[in-house]
Design goal:
Blueprint lengths: L1 H5 L24 H4 L4 H22 L7
């Protein structure tokens, strides 16, 4: 998110690579505890959370429209 804050004044392209989920499934907390019996689902939930944060930040900065 810090990169977006620094480069918010002009056109940019951002490519986001999500490595999760992958084997061995080992999601970070709190997803590891929440999905103890289904670590794959924990990794999916973590990736979904990360994308949600990115999209939320973009929406707050009005990056969701084409200029």
């Amino acid at each position: 998110m810090a990169w977006l804050d620094k480069h918010a004044h002009g056109p940019f392209f951002i490519w986001v690579h999500l490595y999760d989920p992958h084997d061995p499934y080992d999601p970070p907390e709190p997803y590891k505890s929440r999905y103890k019996s289904a670590p794959y689902d924990g990794e999916i939930a973590y990736a979904d959370s990360a994308v949600g944060k990115l999209l939320g930040n973009c929406a707050r900065k009005d990056f969701t429209t084409t200029r």
